[in-house]
Amino acid sequence: MRHLSSPTNPTLSSTYLLHLDRGSSGPASSRSAEVGLLVVCRYMSVCAASSRTRARRSADRHCPLKMDQKEADPSFIPGTGQVVLYGEFTGTDNPKVKYAVSLTEEDLSVQKVLAPSSPAAGRNKLSFSLKDCVGARSLREEDDHRHADPGGVYFSAYFYPLRKRWMSSGAARQRVEQRFRVASLRDPRANLEEAEKWARAIRERAGLLRPLGHGVVLSAVRQPCRVMLLVNPQSGKGQALGLYNGHIQRMLSEAEVPHTLLITERKNHARELVREADLSQWDALVIISGDGLLYEVINGLLEREDWEQAIHTPLGILPGGSGNALAASIHHYSGAPLVSSEELLVSCGFILCKGLVSRMDLISVHLGSGQRLFSFLSLAWGFVADVDVESEKYRHVGAARFTVGTLVRLASLRVYRGRLSYLPVADGDDAERGVIPNGAQHTFHNSCNSNNALKAKRRDPPMLTGPTDTLLAPVDRPVPSDWVVVPEEDFVLMLAMYQSCLAEDLLAAPNATLDQGVIHLMYVKAGITRASLLKLFLAMEKGTHLATSCPHLEYSRVRALRLEPYAPKGLITVDGEAVEYGPVQAQVHRGLARMITG
């Protein structure tokens, strides 16, 4: 195991906060923890741009300006609220050009100051939402050597607004950095204080933009943070570490999120690490990998003696593998347009920096041997499981491995025999999704020191503890009388989903939500043609497969299920990982885990 601590800057203040109840283990505190949570990012943002077109084309725009302070002038305000700060800045490259910058409770506005007689006067205003800002900081020249300005003082703001793609349709989050020079005072210390005043004012106003979580207003508790960042360098095409170096390290620095990087070295290494780690040293566990590494982390947390507290440790996911299904689901829940590859990584990095934590369902899965494990994404048998496992040989092509695997399996379509039973969701049984309300206590702390407890001990995984499964009968006994037994016994596939996406480009359960307490069960009966099955998967790219009226496709919302394969050999996958083949049953545990969702 290798670990690296992120560089720290003594001039940076801690702005990334996470708040979650870690009360005692009694019933009352447990209920409080179930409904408690929040994470907030304080942002700082000051922006300037010469034109909308150039800002759209540039991902890293710097605008060093000289500030000339004035009282707030309402004529420069975009009309979104009361002015908090106002200043006029002159460009370093052209000292004759001035920009009026004003801060309101929601926006930062930038406008080139022109003569009143100019035809463009009043029409060159740009407004930037503080909701798109991940952070900002004040800098002295010695902190950044990109500007040859001895004694200069700056503050930079970092935005990730949704912008139209340059070469394709749709929109994606794109990085924009804006930099301002503070040099109106002769005393460098006074200039630094002035720069920090602007930064602090914008961070505070951005922090007051509390997100609405299904009607619950989340409040801010300003505490520092400590993040363990786990990277699997072998995931996907082996580029996870490069994605960290190319994007995530910079984003976390911009948001002032100190973290310790841990590079996994073998299968189940992350499982061992979190099982043995002193979690009081960490306030969030974030992974850069595919879905397999998070599967290890969740099951490692539930193998601990203190699993009830451990599983409430906020988790974050950044796509670095082939499937990236949960990362795509988190992005989908944010309401942003469909993206993939590095655009998905930037979106999930933005969500991580925003820092809102929600509850996430976990599914308890029992195998025929008596082993119990926990799943956050999917349970598959038949066609989907075969593609998951057999496409491993095409891992070098990245996410395209699933397309290749699908075509190969379609060429030799199989039928799988077995018995499927499930407990349907009763009418009116859907409670409102819960967001952990104000008053919870889980904080990030500003520390990046290494932790000796991370030296994981190798031992056989214990039987998982965890919540009691009240809906399941022993697998060798009949299902309860209120269950439905599917009359058909010949299937092409069975897929149980609890998140929306099966892959970056497959919206398998479009109505799924993070903490719905529902398993979305789909199965395809034997007799479907290759062409019809291919059409289903093509429709799944847009989430319209359930509306195709395919007579072989069945869909149900369930709380629990049981699958009993008849064939002696086959494949069953949980979260894309092959597990013991044989009878399997599962039930949902609503809101058991915590996930950073933006």
UniProtKB/TrEMBL annotation:
Source taxon at top rank: Eukaryota
Protein name: sphingosine kinase
PROSITE patterns reported in the protein's UniProt record: DAGK
Every DAGKc domain range: 222-369
One GO cellular component term noted in the UniProt record for this chain: cytoplasm
Alphabetized SUPFAM superfamilies for the sequence: NAD kinase/diacylglycerol kinase-like (SSF111331)
Gene3D superfamilies reported for this sequence: 2.60.200.40, Probable inorganic polyphosphate/atp-NAD kinase, domain 1
Gene (UniProt): Sphk1
UniProt KW ATP-binding keyword: yes
EC code: 2.7.1.91
Signal sequence interval, chain numbering: none
Coiled coil: none
Compartments, as annotated in UniProt: Endomembrane system
PANTHER family the record matches: SPHINGOSINE KINASE, SPHINGOSINE KINASE 1
Pfam family of the protein (one): DAGK_cat
GO molecular function: ATP binding; sphingosine kinase activity
Any one GO BP annotation for this protein: negative regulation of apoptotic process
Record key words, sorted: ATP-binding, Kinase, Membrane, Nucleotide-binding, Transferase
